[in-house]
Amino acid sequence: AHLLARIDRFDDDLNSFITMTPETALEAADRADAARAAGKAGPLTGVPLALKDIFCTEGVKTSAGSRMLDNFVAPYDATVVEKLAVAGTVSLGKTNMDEFAMGSSNENSYYGPVKNPWDPAAVPGGSSGGSAAAVAAGLVPAAMGTDTGGSIRQPAAFCGITGLKPTYGRVSRYGIIAYASSLDQAGPMARTAEDCARLLGAIAGHDLRDSTSVARGVPDYTGELEAPLTGLKIGLPREYFGDGLDPVVEAAVREAVKVYESLGASVREVSLPHTHYAIPAYYVIAPAEASSNLSRYDGVRFGHRCDNPQDLIDLYKRSRAEGFGEEVKRRILIGTHTLSEGFFDAYYKKAQQVRRLIRQDFLDAFEEVDVLMGPASPTPAFDLGANKDPVSMYLQDIYTIAVNLAGIPGISVPAGFAGRRPVGLQILGTHFAEARLLNVAHRFQ
Ligand code: GLN
């Protein structure tokens, strides 16, 4: 109840929530109290949190930040939502996001931009900007995000919190509104790696309803948090410290690396030679998958429908024209083009080949080192409204999207400030190395 009042008081200005769910939250809190009284409480019992508005929640509006789904009430819970409820957490509501998770600043939301709690002139990052801002502002201790190309790690960096993108397949995608299915992955955003470890333990695991989820046991992610880092081999990818990296961000990352050295780690430079192909490959693959996933919004079955359609084609055309925002339309057009006959081999197929090479770069690097470290984003949070050109916005994702193409896990942890704006350190590991990443992140905090 205390946090609900805080959200009422501060969120008009911050705009981090799209929908609040106070009634169901208070009911869930009562159930948590009862569980505690009965001696049946787990580590997450009664913990309040928020869900990015991309997770389907039964009986609650699930908009994905789009006008298209402004009237959509999900008929079922996503697996992540179900698992969090079983763990006893209390969801306070659904957080703001870039439309269909397309964006790096939360400015593509139908519900308006979110402010960065550290500096109201700055963006919170995106696409999970509402989740990051809500945690940073102390409105909730944790929130769920999704990361297709950095959407957990970059807003975590911009808002000075910790955000983990798990290995592709670690967490079920069932009930998460699809953006680019071969890249989408859900993960926790919280103040600390320790909190992320608890939450990941609750949401990870195989799910028969998501055929890409991996049948592999879920370790106790809190078990290794304190493990010493003596002998840890850290790689610094040369390509992550090149042109375009803000010197203040670079200095903060290098300071963090020194801290690790003082904890007994060794550091060496490594190379991820195909890094500069990551943005072009991602911006072919992601829009291609998006154009296919978004073809379901036709105004017929659910979602926005235009007034007075003249015939079926008119219904499709106007419903989609009115329901989707500009960036979403841009990506549908790009994706439809690259998948069309005559262009498929030149774009989509080529991008998939490049994706293989990018994945191999990481696997080669992890033969030599245990983790990679670098910046989460080339700059600290930029000003609201400052970045109007789509391509310069895409270039923001330079350090995050290769990770999704490779399917490996990554975590962003707070590593200082540039003036009032936080800077994030990104730590990457090989597939299913989440426990190691959380350990490394935790020892820094
Ligand atoms: N900024 C990237 C994009 O716009 C990543 C978004 C995401 O991870 N969902 O596609």
Report on this model:
It is a single chain. With 445 residues, the protein is of the alpha/beta class. The protein has a domain at 2-203: Amidase signature (AS) domain (Amidase signature (AS) enzymes), CATH 3.90.1300. It is built from 14 helices and 11 strands. It has helices at 2-14, 22-37, 79-86, 129-136, 153-159, 193-203, 247-262, 278-293, 312-323, 326-339, 345-368, 390-395, 401-406, 434-444; strands at 17-20, 48-52, 90-95, 142-146, 162-165, 186-190, 233-237, 266-270, 371-375, 410-418, 421-428. An 11-stranded mixed beta sheet has the order 1-3-2-4-6-5-10-11-9-7-8, with helices on both faces. Helix 4 (129-136) runs parallel beside helix 5. The two termini are 29 Å apart. Its EC number is 6.3.5.7. InterPro entries: Amidase, Amidase_CS, Amidase_dom, AS_sf, GatA. Keywords: ATP-binding, Ligase, Nucleotide-binding, Protein biosynthesis. Heterotrimer of A, B and C subunits. It holds the Pfam family Amidase.
Secondary structure blueprint with pairings:
Elements: H1 2-14, E1 17-20, H2 22-37, E2 48-52, H3 79-86, E3 90-95, H4 129-136, E4 142-146, H5 153-159, E5 162-165, E6 186-190, H6 193-203, E7 233-237, H7 247-262, E8 266-270, H8 278-293, H9 312-323, H10 326-339, H11 345-368, E9 371-375, H12 390-395, H13 401-406, E10 410-418, E11 421-428, H14 434-444
Parallel strand pairs: 2-3, 2-4, 7-8, 7-9
Antiparallel strand pairs: 1-3, 4-6, 5-6, 5-10, 9-11, 10-11
The protein binds glutamine (GLN).
Glutamine (GLN) binds next to loops.
